[in-house]
């Protein structure tokens, strides 16, 4: 058995700290920041994510509304709702829960959201601002990771950072945020040659892949900070479904610090969504 040495970077205390600042900022505004979430169909994961975001939003003093639409809602109907929410001055943040059913073009929907209300940070205007070094509304998971790192006093500037995964939701915006924070950044992906040689260079390793236990101890520099974004459902020895990350548990014997799964990055994502909603409200004209 491997001795566990890595410091555990628990998500909940960091998320609570972020939520406390969200509540304080919300209370300073003339009216509570308002988040509107839209979901199509009854995908159990989407239902549960939206419910969790709605509950947390209310807990910290935000207003939250959920539009639960049938799976067969047409793209035109969804775009009409977004246009209505864009025009409604009482709405500060709009989130369309992904994935959308196949008959709806995700890109067309995300591009239709007013960038000032785009609390997921997926609109090309916000993506461009992030890469230009002027982040405003930034994708929630990587922005939450930046908060987690600062909460635990872990250095970013001058560090060699390696991100495994280049999705628009996690890998790419993570790279931009780390670059903006003066890390030296490498992004690896499924076509990377000799992944282990690349990851072993990292002082800060972010795994956002969706492959259980892809990152093994031999791929990690001793003492590195390892952020495990992966959420994978696997069958345990008891034949029941368990959540596990992209990082093998034995990495705890090599890394200096490691986020657990569950209870690491996950809670940061919701907290950051609410932080983005307050940021959107602060930047919109007072009503
Ligand atoms: P995507 O499937 O969109 O992206 C996965 C990335 O991993 C791709 O860039 C892919 O490369 C790369 N990849 C796949 N296989 C390998 C491999 N063998 N070696 C190296 N790179 C590989 O996933 P997401 O970014 O959306 O999510 C990643 C994980 O994070 C998932 O488990 C997801 O559930 C979880 N997640 C967790 C969140 C949280 O709040 N904790 C939030 C969002 C996601 P290529 O581009 O070449 O195909």
UniProtKB/TrEMBL annotation:
<feature type="domain" description="Tetrahydrofolate dehydrogenase/cyclohydrolase NAD(P)-binding">
    <location>
        <begin position="139"/>
        <end position="284"/>
    </location>
</feature>
<feature type="domain" description="Tetrahydrofolate dehydrogenase/cyclohydrolase catalytic">
    <location>
        <begin position="11"/>
        <end position="120"/>
    </location>
</feature>
<protein>
    <recommendedName>
        <fullName>Bifunctional protein FolD</fullName>
        <ecNumber>1.5.1.5</ecNumber>
        <ecNumber>3.5.4.9</ecNumber>
    </recommendedName>
</protein>
<dbReference type="Pfam" id="PF00763">
    <property type="entry name" value="THF_DHG_CYH"/>
</dbReference>
<dbReference type="InterPro" id="IPR046346">
    <property type="entry name" value="Aminoacid_DH-like_N_sf"/>
</dbReference>
<dbReference type="InterPro" id="IPR020630">
    <property type="entry name" value="THF_DH/CycHdrlase_cat_dom"/>
</dbReference>
<feature type="binding site">
    <location>
        <begin position="165"/>
        <end position="167"/>
    </location>
    <ligand>
        <name>NADP(+)</name>
    </ligand>
</feature>
<comment type="function">
    <text>Catalyzes the oxidation of 5,10-methylenetetrahydrofolate to 5,10-methenyltetrahydrofolate and then the hydrolysis of 5,10-methenyltetrahydrofolate to 10-formyltetrahydrofolate.</text>
</comment>
<feature type="binding site">
    <location>
        <position position="231"/>
    </location>
    <ligand>
        <name>NADP(+)</name>
    </ligand>
</feature>
<comment type="pathway">
    <text>One-carbon metabolism; tetrahydrofolate interconversion.</text>
</comment>
<keyword id="KW-0560">Oxidoreductase</keyword>
<keyword id="KW-0028">Amino-acid biosynthesis</keyword>
<keyword id="KW-0658">Purine biosynthesis</keyword>
<comment type="similarity">
    <text>Belongs to the tetrahydrofolate dehydrogenase/cyclohydrolase family.</text>
</comment>
<keyword id="KW-0368">Histidine biosynthesis</keyword>
<keyword id="KW-0554">One-carbon metabolism</keyword>
<keyword id="KW-0378">Hydrolase</keyword>
<keyword id="KW-0521">NADP</keyword>
<keyword id="KW-0486">Methionine biosynthesis</keyword>
<dbReference type="Pfam" id="PF02882">
    <property type="entry name" value="THF_DHG_CYH_C"/>
</dbReference>
<comment type="subunit">
    <text>Homodimer.</text>
</comment>
<dbReference type="InterPro" id="IPR000672">
    <property type="entry name" value="THF_DH/CycHdrlase"/>
</dbReference>
<dbReference type="InterPro" id="IPR036291">
    <property type="entry name" value="NAD(P)-bd_dom_sf"/>
</dbReference>
<keyword id="KW-0511">Multifunctional enzyme</keyword>
<dbReference type="InterPro" id="IPR020867">
    <property type="entry name" value="THF_DH/CycHdrlase_CS"/>
</dbReference>
<dbReference type="InterPro" id="IPR020631">
    <property type="entry name" value="THF_DH/CycHdrlase_NAD-bd_dom"/>
</dbReference>
């Amino acid at each position: 058995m491997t001795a566990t040495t890595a410091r555990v970077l628990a998500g909940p205390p960091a998320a609570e700290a972020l939520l406390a600042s969200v509540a304080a900022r919300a209370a300073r505004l003339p009216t509570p920041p308002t988040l509107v979430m839209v979901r199509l169909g009854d995908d159990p994961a989407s239902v549960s994510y939206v419910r969790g975001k709605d509950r947390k939003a209310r807990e910290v003093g935000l207003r939250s509304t959920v539009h639960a639409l049938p799976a067969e809602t047409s793209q035109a109907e969804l775009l009409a709702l977004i246009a209505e929410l864009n025009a409604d001055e009482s709405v500060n943040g709009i989130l369309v829960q992904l994935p959308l059913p196949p008959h709806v073009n995700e890109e067309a929907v995300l591009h239709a959201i007013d960038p000032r209300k785009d609390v997921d940070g997926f609109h090309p205007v916000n993506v461009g601002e992030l890469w230009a070094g002027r982040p405003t509304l930034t994708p929630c998971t990587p922005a939450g990771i930046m908060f987690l790192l600062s909460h635990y006093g872990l250095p970013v500037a001058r560090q060699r950072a390696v991100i495994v995964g280049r999705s628009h939701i996690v890998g790419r915006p993570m790279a931009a945020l780390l670059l903006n924070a003066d890390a030296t950044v490498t992004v690896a992906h499924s076509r990377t040659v000799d992944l282990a040689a690349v990851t072993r260079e990292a002082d800060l390793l972010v795994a956002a892949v969706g492959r259980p236990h892809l990152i093994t101890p031999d791929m990690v520099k001793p003492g590195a900070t390892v952020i495990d974004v992966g959420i994978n459902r696997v069958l345990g020895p008891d034949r029941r479904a368990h959540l596990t990350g992209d990082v093998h548990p034995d990495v705890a014997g090599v890394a200096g610090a490691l986020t657990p799964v569950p209870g690491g990055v996950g809670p940061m994502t919701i907290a950051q969504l609410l932080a983005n909603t307050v940021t959107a409200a602060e930047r919109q004209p007072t009503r």
